[in-house]
């Protein structure tokens, strides 16, 4: 069982911040004396090189949350519709809709959405309905921004239920987790020509997203999927590996193509700013690193695979800014092999491990890297993550993040499933509905991995 103090035991954000200082004097939580309502109700803006200045009506973002519940052909179902409409009614002004595969074989599961000529009309109608729902509830769609996350799952593809990995490079610890060995790696390895085709697939999907009415697309570079794995392709030969410029060649080409074909479409990037080496359950169930030797596969981390490499993170974000990207969402790690740094939780999913550190450290690490990025790149629009674990203290610490310029917008992930109307309640000055607060039981992950509907089962 977890051996750490539970968040509900801390009466105030200041008490929680004091506890964090005990855990790690190098990390902190931003506090503010101003009411959360006042801080989080302010508008903000960012500049996209093609679309121009974009202004949002408040500070809240709903992060891309999927439920593994699309139709077999990748179109939205009634369950997808319910989730999107609940997000539209949340009160948040930045709706970052869920991971959508650019083609069938890039799906992470057989029910992931796919954006193509066959599904674009259904997705367009759902977006229109979501915007109309927002306007009906709040009287206006001013300051509302909708975007769609585009993805190919790469190593973690399961389009028909079984692993069907397409990898950027052979990985000594992750290949076996997706059923690969020395005899099967060559067939799974994406060639430069394969990646060239993926460039075209992403551009085509962006055109469909524009036609569906979205104002921006997210070129997903996080959580171990295809484009994120490219960032750590240090040993890959050819045009897509080795130097940082080569590892960004895919992104550069996609952005160029989208700018040419959809100049009115803004481009965002959700990325894992840092990765750690894979963890696995030890004898007592607690997560332990896979190796104590050098680990040269973690983007944004040192050779130990257990500490951040700020110069590499900084160089990557500088390239995003150079490419005209005005909006980023800062995440970390992967749910497949480092969930404790990606979505800090008191309880792991069924296929996970017990947290190797107090989850509050994972939250603070995510907030701190957002702070460093925002303060180094002040004109960049920065959406933060990891706040769900803060539970009843989320609004106050989110407001502190905004007031102290750690981020422009606090992103809501898991808590948006259990409590989609949290932004509305905070902005109205109401007390939080305690029974709706996510306690990080991880059932929203465990359920779909076992063939059940995603959602907050304790509710």
Question: How would you characterize this protein structure?
Answer:
The chain has helices at residues 13-23, 36-40, 78-88, 120-138, 185-188, 192-211, 226-231, 244-247, 249-261, 310-322, 339-342, 359-376, 394-403, 415-418, 422-427, 443-449, and strands at 44-48, 52-56, 61-62, 94-101, 113-114, 145-151, 216-219, 266-272, 279-281, 287-289, 327-331, 381-384, 409-412. The strands form 3 sheets. Strands 3-4-6-7-8-11-12-13 form an 8-stranded parallel beta barrel, surrounded by 5 helices. Strands 1-2 form a two-stranded antiparallel sheet. The protein has a two-stranded antiparallel ribbon with strand order 9-10. It is of the alpha/beta class. Helices cover 34% and strands 13% of the residues. It is globular. It contains 16 helices and 13 strands. α6 (192-211) runs parallel beside α9 (249-261).
